[in-house]
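Q: I'm writing up a methods section and want to include an example of the input and output format. Could you take the sequence below and give the corresponding predicted structure tokens, formatted cleanly so I can copy it straight into the document?
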Amino acid sequence: MFKLKEFASPAEKTAKMQEIKTRLEALIDKVDVLRKIEVHFNCNPSETWDIVLETELDTLADVDTYANHPEHVAVAKGIIGPVKADRACVDYEF
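A: Here is the clean output for your methods example:
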């Protein structure tokens, strides 16, 4: 989950959130260990988090591969990093 920094306007925040969604979801065609990737926006303004990222990978080793893949790093550092206020993550098996 991501909480974003304050933006000059709601429209600017919405545009950045959409860019994050588009760029992250495009990784499905670039990172071969990804089985699923979805980005959703919080619709409840009284909650803390703005964006939730859900991915499916086969193994915890694949999580590491995904996290360090150059395409993912480019999005994480270049697109999300400058506007990220906070991040929370849970890795689980099912």
